Amino acid sequence: MAIALAADQPIAIIRQNQDISPDGTFHSKWESANGITFEEEGVLKNRGQKDAEAEEVHGSASWTAPDGTRINVDWLANENGATFQGAHLPTPPPTQPVPVLIQRALDWIAANPEKNRL
Fold this sequence. Notes:
Blueprint: E1 13-20, E2 26-32, E3 37-45, E4 54-64, E5 70-78, E6 81-85, H1 100-111
């Protein structure tokens, strides 16, 4: 049994703009014929401060999911890691308060540290 699959056709980029500066900053933006958009910008923060220099990049992208939903995602990446935001991304359940008896025990432990014994 043989199955013939159509090869994916390349998707045209209909708009593209890139600006890269000698100081390391950049801006990139493009849009494809199938409606995908992408934009990203990067900077070097605290230039010249040896222990404080850090790259920071923020951007966004959007596309249409197979079910027709428009997906939008934004991001920020820097010395603290990366964060992503989008209505389609899962979120953690709300945190529950610490039970009273456990909190009381934790408070007692913090107030009564064990002395080092040799």
